[in-house]
Amino acid sequence: MLLLGYISSFIMGTLLGLIGAGGSILTVPILFYLFGQDAVIATTNSLFIVGTAALVGAFIRIRNGDANIKVGILFIIPSFLGIYIARNLILPAIPNVLVFPFGITLTKSPLIMTVFAIVMTFSAFAMIRSNDPNSQESSKPKTEPYDFLAIGFKGLTVGMITGFVGAGGGFLIIPALVLLLKFSIRQAIGTSLAIIAANSLFGFAISFTPAQSKSCPLLLIISILGIGGMILGQTLSSKMNEKYLKSGFGYFTLAVASSILFDQGLRVF
């Protein structure tokens, strides 16, 4: 299981480098299923791993001019508020055992994994839909002023999702940048990585407790593997067909989400 977890961590970094999204979608299940971590701890540790890998990728993209720092900052500031709300208000308020109608009982861990799988499903459809000819970034670049309120609201939403399920939010950020702000896909990926890095590392900083320090050596190993995959992904991204890559990732994400929902369903029923 450990070897499979390490290999999967490298693959996670590669996917994050290729399309600027999907790191946490794989990291949380890797930590939960392959390394046996509790769902709440997995979402916290995922933030560090993905944030570190995304930070390296963002520096590479920024150096190459493939990032819009201004829009990134507009996303990041309200995202911090969303992360704080999720990690310090929403998650602590959820009881350890929840009773639903029809005799369904859920503990906090399966609830988080179920919500995470639902978020993954939306991610998958967003990736697949982004290849629609009417949704491509080939449209003319946006020249009118940015809608700061819309960007801020999107940042708040992404931040809350980041805080709750430990997902960096790239699957929401990239469609917003490409479809709403008419970014090129390369600029969207670079900007997304910068936002993911800031959101994830902030979320980890406000969530980490001394009791989790024993997992630090494992986090460092996984992070190094993720960074290695990130560098490989960045290298491959310029050589691969974006349309087929995103569709393939979307269907893969959908399959993983379905597997998690099936597994959690078996645990409940």
From TrEMBL:
This is Probable membrane transporter protein. It is a multi-pass membrane protein. It holds the Pfam family TauE. Belongs to the 4-toluene sulfonate uptake permease (TSUP) (TC 2.A.102) family. The chain crosses the membrane at residues 12-34, 40-60, 72-90, 148-181, 187-206, 218-236, 248-266. The keyword rRNA processing does not apply. Keywords: Cell membrane, Membrane, Transmembrane, Transmembrane helix. The keyword Chaperone does not apply. It comes from Leptospira langatensis. It is found in: Cell membrane; Membrane. Its main location: membrane. InterPro entries: TM_pro_TauE-like, TSUP/Inactive_protease-like. PANTHER family: MEMBRANE TRANSPORTER PROTEIN MJ0441-RELATED (PTHR43701), MEMBRANE TRANSPORTER PROTEIN YJNA-RELATED (PTHR43701:SF2). One of its GO terms (cellular component) is plasma membrane.
